[in-house]
Amino acid sequence: MKRWASDPGLRRLVSEKREGVLGRRAFLARLGGATAGAAAATLIGSAAPARAQKKIVVTMWDTEPNPATRAAVKAIVEDFHKLHKDIEIHAEGMGWADMDRKLQAAMAAKSPPTASHTQTYVVTSFKAKGLIEPVDDLVKALGEDRIFPSVLRWMKYPDGKYWGLTHAWGADNLGGRGDYLTGTGVDPRSWKTWDDWLRDLPKLNKAPQYYGLSLAGIPFFVNEDVYMWTGANGGSIFDDKGNPALESPQVLGMLEFWKKLRAFLPAGWASHDYLETLSAWAAGKTAQVFMWGRTAGYIDQYAPPDKRNPDIFQMWPKTIGPMGKAPLTQFDNEPWVFYADAPKEEKAAAKEFLKFFFKKENYRRYCDSVPVHLLSIFKEDFADPAYMNHPERKRWKPWLDAQLKWVEIGRAHPLLICNPQDMVIPWIGDVAAAPILADMVMAVVERGRDPRAAAKEASDKISRDIIGKAKG
Amino acid sequence: MWRRRREALIGMGLLLPSAALVLAFTLFPVGYNVWLGFYAKHSLRATSAWVGLDNYAQILVDPDFWRSVWLATVYAVASTALQIVAGVAGALILHRRFPGCDFLRGVALFPYMIPTIIAVFVWRWLMNDLYGVIPYALGALAIPGMPEAWLTHSTIMWVLVVLSVWTFFPFVLVNVLARLQTIPPELYDAARVDGASPVGQFFNVTLPQLRNVLLIVLLLRGIWMFTKFDVPWLLGFGGGAGEAIRTLPVFTYQRSFTYYQAGMGAALSNVMLALLLMAVTLYFVAFPPEADENDA
Questions:
Q1: Which residue, of A105, A289, B64, B224, is most buried by count of CB atoms within 10 Å of its CB?
Q2: Contacting B residues, span 172-191, partner chain A, CB-CB under 8 Å
Q3: For chains A and B, what is the number of CB pairs under 8 angstroms?
Q4: For the sheet containing A329-332, what is the strand order?
Q5: Which ipTM did the prediction report?
Q6: Number of compact structural domains in chain B
Q7: How sure is the predictor about A14, in pLDDT bands with cuts at 50, 70 and 90?
């Protein structure tokens, strides 16, 4: 007896080939698949029964790899599977850098995931390249009116469509050590302008015990400060046509301001990454840091037990440049996007999953995994005692209030977007990914280059290497 | 006649799998990369446009490219030279029999066995200006002119070199130690009879015997350090202070994956290959391999 004759699947395959139902190529392809399947079944030690029905496999990549969030997502997926036996959700969490590389490879191979998290500026780039689809149906199913307008505004484009759906939000703040104010006479609540801040920074700088301010020097995080301070100085990285505006007085003023801040930064700031700045703040090596709600975890990890509270780790105001009218902060509002090249039935299944995910009982589990950072997109939750009385949200209430304030005044903008019109610039994502802006800052702050010359060089690089290439 | 043809056919048949593998895994990727270098291709899109030699023309006038070549050369030369010195010194010590030498021979390999990401992050922590043990210890010595921080624009290259020497010198050590153990003891006996001091024995016996192995090690390590991407990338992330260690491989990576210019990235890696081929050719002209006396 032939070996294949004992396997019903292979027996059917061979008979179909003999009867001419299958061509040679189709036969070989299915034979390969059947053999691989049999090998996998052998490897796991059991011969799985043939599937009664074909499952729709959905691949979803998100950027929340921390264990608590993974556990929450896993539980939500398992509950979803109980209700939808025909759908299999593969939810994978990864860091931003991994996501970026994986997406590039997947896009180039035209085999993207069904949906993924991304940055707002990437939505613009992907939209311009025809790589993603609108998600109006999903937004409407959840209820536009329920979602914060400040969240929705960054997903809605001039064509009137929503091109992404924010999974949760957070706003960047200036964190300050309350205990370091003692005896300095400094009252951060009085700060309105950069000059106010610069006036008091020397009193908060007790190097080498602790420094006045800690900033991250890695390009991605340098970009954050570049656009926040340019925006707070009334300017933008781009002009109305999307060309670089780095030689504008607002950007040059931002660079001059950075030079003045340098005196209060640790000597090795240019190699510090974002997490190092957070642990420096928690451990008392810096008086101030730009931070997100998830920093609470670092405080619980590194700060002395008696200092783990918002009286010590305070929220201080961000200030305005001489040419600005209002401060600007970064809005962490990464959206889910759906890829044009993904199969239709997968996208429909992924939307079903997200509708389930955003149901109150499920979404609450997700938000509660990082309670002061993964903030709900639904306005109603902030009036719900069950949400607000979560022990961590109660404990860090001033942090929550500081984030909500940014949303209320509408000055929380996604990365590199100083003005709302910047979000339609198709190459904004490419500028964000390249190290050009960070090189400009380093040239001025660390290598003593003239700001105007450094800004011109950066402008030329953006025009030549990014816009020139994009226009082809 | 028929038998010879049959043997030739069998020989060719036996060579075919190897030839196919070389074609598939070496020549095809290189060929594809050469082809891609003639195109403008965004990394996120499946489309591309023929630009001929434009990518190469841009590379040649880009000061950032030349800076990256210079940084890669400094890194490769400094770290390779110091690896050779440390590796030979270590091998000479471990060549002698003393209590615990077998244990030390095993331990000496540890840096080479540690995953790069672990090694680099451990060094990042050791050198951190706020918490690092090394800046703290050096600071305690109060040496005038000692930098306050080491992962800065002016000093990060030295950290990269020291870290790389620490990680990769065991490769040199193992190769040199293996060769030392095959040097006939009679050569040293003869040298001693001739009145050679230990230093004289090293320069007149050991070093000439090590010549061939050192030439190969120098070549391999030089190539590997020039094309080394992971260590400079993980130490500096390509920006901030990492700007000062943006070597050619890091620059190439950034063009491909942060500027999203797959065609330009391919052209840069072709240039890197060409530079290495030229360097290797010059190397073999300057140091032609000699037949080993023991092989004769």
A1: A289
A2: none
A3: 115
A4: A170-171, A329-332, A412-413
A5: 0.88
A6: 1
A7: low
Query: How many alpha carbons fall within 13 Å on the CB side of residue A254?
Result: 32
Distance from CA of A101 to the nearest CA of B (A): 7
CATH number at residue B226: 1.10.3720.10
Look at residue B136 and tell me if it is in a domain: yes
Cα within 13 Å of Cα(A175), Cβ side: 31
- Domain of residue A417, residue span: 171-330+412-471
Q: Do A268 and B150 touch (CB under 8 A)?
A: yes
Distances B95 to B88, B177, B292 between C-alpha atoms, Å: 10, 6, 21
Which residue, A383, A401, A366, is CA-closest to A173?
A401
Q: Which residues of B touch A434 (CB under 8 A)?
A: 254, 258-259
Judge whether B267 lies within some domain: no
Does the pLDDT value for residue A30 go beyond 80?
A: no
Which of A17-21, B125-129, B239-243 bottoms out in mean pLDDT, i.e. has the lowest?
Answer: A17-21
Give pLDDT, residue A53: 64
Residue A244 in this model has a pLDDT that exceeds 90: yes
The number of CA neighbours under 13 Å toward the Cβ of B240 is 26
Residue A51, Cα to own-chain centre: how many angstroms?
38
Q: Please, are residues B151 and B128 in contact by the beta-carbon 8 Å criterion? A: yes
Beta bridge partners of B42: B261
**Range B223-237 average pLDDT:** 96
Asked if A416 contacts A227 with a C-beta cutoff of 8 angstroms, the reply is: yes
Query: Residue B44 and residue A466: Cβ atoms within 8 Å?
Result: no
pLDDT at A118 over 60: yes
* CB < 8 Å to B259, chain A: 430, 433-434, 465-466, 469
Mean pLDDT of B249-268: 93
Strands (E), A111-212: 115-117, 132-133, 165-166, 170-171, 173-177
SS3 category, A62 = strand
Tell me the angle at which helices B262-286 and B248-257 cross, rounded to the nearest 10 degrees: 160
Tell how many helices (H) and how many strands (E) occur in chain A. 21, 12
Within the 46-105 window of chain A, which residues sit less than 8 Å (CB to CB) from chain B? 100-101, 103-104
Residues of B in contact with A430 (CB under 8 A): 259-260
Q: Measured between CB atoms, which of A107, A283, A435 is closest to B254?
A: A435
Percentage of chain A surpassing pLDDT 90? Answer: 74
Instruction: Please give the torsion angle defined by the CA atoms of residues A20, A24, A30 and A35, in that order, rounded to the nearest 10 degrees.
Output: 110
B42 min Cα distance to partner chain A (Å) = 8
Whole-angstrom CA distances from A16 to A1, A52, A53, A344 are 19, 20, 21, 30
Q: Which of A88-102, B114-128, B236-250 has the lowest mean pLDDT?
A: A88-102
Residue B103's pLDDT is 92
